[in-house]
Amino acid sequence: MRFLRNFNSIVARLMTVFAAVCLAVLVALVMYSVVMRYVFDDAQDYVEPIGLLLVLFIAFIGAALKLRDGGHIGLDSLVKAMPPKVQRWMIAFQHVCLAVFAVAVCFGSWEMAVTTFDDQIPILNLPEAIRYLIPLVASVCIILFSLEHLLALFSFEPTLTLKEREQQT
Known about the structure:
This protein is mostly helical. Helices cover 75% and strands 2% of the residues. It contains 6 helices and 2 strands. It has helices at 2-38, 47-68, 77-80, 84-115, 130-154, 162-168; strands at residues 120-121, 126-127. Strands 1-2 form a two-stranded antiparallel ribbon. Helix 1 packs antiparallel against helix 5. The mean pLDDT is 85.
């Protein structure tokens, strides 16, 4: 349990840093694009496809990171109305469903990446498969984070929020 938690902590920190860098690059890229388009009347073609890749990465990785710290959207009014033992099983069912869905996304993303590897993203001349590797990475993170939650749930260790984890380190 401790190994998985430590490993996931490292993965989450790396992904957070990379997502933050991607967000900063996206902001700079959009500002550059706006200035070039409206001040110099010279729109750059490569800004949109790069921006799309950055948004995909930020969105998918952000979703996985929110799952880890428990900040994802949840309709938990039914769960909270149940006795603690039933709550534990309902939360476990939720994480199993998330992991199964993430496995399906993994296989679908991998298949699409393999299928589109020879295609090129226009303007960037990069393989189209990059667009499908992003959800693949995010779904692997979702599987790891769901497994961490499941292990914590049944080892009777509370799953800590991101703020609580930061206070411990």
